[in-house]
Amino acid sequence: MKTIFISGASQGIGLGIARRFYQEGFQVIICARGQEKLDKAKAEMPKLHTYICDISDKAAVKQMAVWLNETYGTLDVLVNNGGTFLPGQLHSESDDTYELLMATNMDSTYYLTKGLLPKMMERKSGTIFNIASVASIKPYQYGGSYGISKYAMLGFSKNLREEMKEFGIRVISIMPGAVRTPSWDAAELPDERFIPVEDIASLVWNAYAMSERTVIEDIVVRPFLGDI
Question: DSSP letter at 182?
């Protein structure tokens, strides 16, 4: 049985990806900060494996990587999905905002991937997905440090992809626009203005299911009517 780990996957995009790979017969492991939402996901998918982790905490992320290696061995798929959004502007936002967004969105991706790579490299196979954003390629007036963190994720993916070619490991960036997730619940906009979570899950699955001779490097996907 193949194994996938998805960070920040008790709701939204991560949960959608977990559902798809679970349906495809994978052993699925997810993490999130809250036990309640993890329990809800497990009630839906009884064979789901869960782990509580605040991915803004470097030490906790490193410990989670050790746990994954010791408990499950080499992963077939890693999805760096966990993250958070705070609107702001660089000239006025606090240092704490910058540090939290970088720790949650970028540093967690860096340390988790670095902790799991050695086993993948030894086996010379695996696929890594980094869930970035259209904010990785498009500046926003109120993007602030969130935009910086997502630009960094895209740069991380591109560099890691080059490093991993000799080890047979594919690195794929997904850059979605607005997706219908709980983070948009306060927005008084119709569902038609959002990408369905299921579409992102299908993108990830289809990119994974390509021949190992093929890598879809960077995927940009937006709502049909454009960015919000």
Answer: G
Whether the model pTM is above 0.85: yes
> Distance (Å, rounded) from C-alpha 97 to C-alpha 146?
9
Q: What is the pLDDT of residues 119-164, one digit of tens each?
A: 999 999 999 999 999 999 999 999 999 999 999 999 999 999 999 9
> In whole angstroms, how large is the CA radius of gyration of the chain?
17
pLDDT tens digits for range 18-51: 999 999 999 999 999 999 999 999 999 999 999 9
Q: Which of 80, 102, 93, 85 is nearest to 186 (CA)?
A: 85
Task: Give the catalytic positions in this structure.
Answer: 146
Query: How far is the C-alpha of 178 from the C-alpha of 221, rounded, in Å?
Result: 9
- The whole-angstrom separation of Cα 44 and Cα 64 is 23
Which stretches of the chain are assigned E, i.e. beta strand? Answer: 3-6, 27-32, 49-52, 77-80, 126-131, 169-176, 218-221
31: which strand partners?
Answer: 51
Torsion of CA 158, 224, 203, 182, to 10 degrees: 90
